[in-house]
Amino acid sequence: MECINHPGTAAAGTCQICGKGLCAQCVSRFSPPLCEACLLRHNRGVAVRLSIDLAITAAIIVGVGMVIYFQATTNRWGGFTVGIMLAAAYWGWQFLNRLPTPVFFLSGTGWIFYLLVKLMISVLAGVIIGPWEIFRRIKELHKIRSLEQAVRNGKA
Ligand SMILES: [Zn+2]
Ligand SMILES: [Zn+2]
User: Fold this and answer.
1) Residue 112 pLDDT greater than 90, yes or no
2) Do both 72 and 10 map to the same domain?
3) What is the residue range of 20's domain?
4) All residues with CB under 5 Å from ion ligand 2
5) Ligand 1 geometric centre to CA of 37 (Å)
6) Residues 69 and 122 in one domain
7) Which residues are near ligand 1, the ion (C-beta closer than 5 Å)?
8) How many Å lie between the centroid of ligand 2 and the Cα of residue 155?
9) How many CB atoms lie within 10 A of CB 88?
10) How far is CA 40 from CA 30, 72, 79, 82, 136, in A?
11) What are 19-60's pLDDT values in tens digits?
12) 147 and 130 assigned to the same domain
């Protein structure tokens, strides 16, 4: 097998996604070893998922805020506080989903109680975790964009 980027050079490994040959130089370019096309496609997919999370957060805050702003007669800006709380719940909920469900809550009314408690904890956890997760995603998006540019300019 030959390297996909350097015809005539023997492959030292393969792209982890498409299985095409990569020479010794190309195999150590990215970790895990990927060809350029697969790396860019994979990262674009990740970037879309990260952007969707950020867009949902903005949509919850702006959406809920606007609805209450136009409906409420007093405390019109309070809607944005509610929006931020719900956006926090969105992040906190995802965080709690990574933790195991307590088994003793898994039946009947216990389940409803569990969901209510989970929602409350989601808001509390989200206030702390949300901004951190958003910051991490923006940083990750920036990294993906810089890497894509570097690959296009032949610098990575
Ligand atoms: Zn590939
Ligand atoms: Zn090569």
Assistant:
1) no
2) no
3) 1-34
4) 3, 5-6, 23, 26
5) 6
6) yes
7) 15, 17-18, 35, 38
8) 14
9) 23
10) 11, 47, 40, 38, 20
11) 999 999 999 999 899 999 999 999 999 999 999 999 999 999
12) yes
